Amino acid sequence: MGQNDSAKVSVAVVTKGRDLEKVSSENAGRTKAVIQAVKGLNIKDLKLKTSNYRVTPQKDYKARPPKIKGYEVHNVIEITMEGFEPEPLSKNVSMIIGKALESGSNNISHIQFYIKNKAALEKEALKRSTREAMDRARTLAEAAGVKLKRIVSLSTQPIHIPTRAHMFRAAEMKAEAPGAPPIEIGESQIRVQVNIAYEIE
């Protein structure tokens, strides 16, 4: 287990309407306002990028043939911050969400917390797993009445643990916690698998 020190927050601006040009223009204006507002928080080393932009025709399926009755424009901005202590990270994520909603975002796509540099934790996990595998091998050999001669094979592989993305919608968040919502960053698990094969006698 390790304390998360980084986060990715995806905020979206979703606009709908009959006229594509107007809907796109409205979306662009609101997205620009969100970006400027988040940058205005002056959070150290904050990174922003567009991670998804799509235009979806809204069809009237009652008509024959179906006709386009309008459009939905969906613009997602991914905000990344890395290498923070728990309290500042939690505070910054909370401020970003609050500011994004306040300035024009109407959907928080997801929040992902993670550890920026997992190498040290993975190394420690490998050491522990190897010691445990060797202890188990000695126990098995003793129970079977054989002796371990030498290691003939040693391998490892990481175990993928899916990251839980916290899903929120702006309307729900505003109803439950206006402004900047409280955020718990939690911990991430590092797991590895070690395989050892011994020659026995």
What are the defining features of this structure?
Alpha-Beta Plaits, 2 domains, about 200 residues, about 35% strand, alpha+beta, elongated, 4 helices, 8 strands, single chain, two-stranded antiparallel ribbon
What does this structure look like?
The protein has 201 residues and is an alpha+beta fold. The chain folds into two domains: 2-116 and 162-185, Alpha-Beta Plaits (2-Layer Sandwich), CATH 3.30.70; 119-157 and 194-200, no CATH class. The chain has helices at 20-39, 86-103, 119-144, 170-176; strands at 2-3, 6-17, 47-60, 67-81, 107-114, 148-158, 187-188, 192-200. A four-stranded antiparallel β-sheet has the order 3-4-2-5. Strands 1-7 form a two-stranded antiparallel ribbon. Strand 3 and strand 4 form a beta hairpin. Helix 1 packs antiparallel against helix 2 (86-103). It starts with a strand and ends with a strand. Mean pLDDT is 84; it is low at 163-178.
Please provide a brief summary of the model.
By secondary structure, this protein is an alpha+beta fold.
Map the helices and strands.
Blueprint: E1 2-3, E2 6-17, H1 20-39, E3 47-60, E4 67-81, H2 86-103, E5 107-114, H3 119-144, E6 148-158, H4 170-176, E7 187-188, E8 192-200
Antiparallel strand pairs: 1-7, 2-4, 2-5, 3-4, 6-8
Helix pairs in contact: 1-2
Say what the CATH topology of the largest domain is: Alpha-Beta Plaits
Instruction: Say which CATH homologous superfamily of the largest domain is assigned.
Output: Protein of unknown function (DUF541), domain 2
| Secondary structure tally: strands | 8
- Radius of gyration (Å): 25 Å
Strand order of the biggest β-sheet: 3-4-2-5
Specify the overall morphology. Answer: elongated
- Please give the share of residues in helix: 25-40%
CATH class of the largest domain: Alpha Beta
Average pLDDT works out at 84
> What share of residues are in beta strands?
35-45%
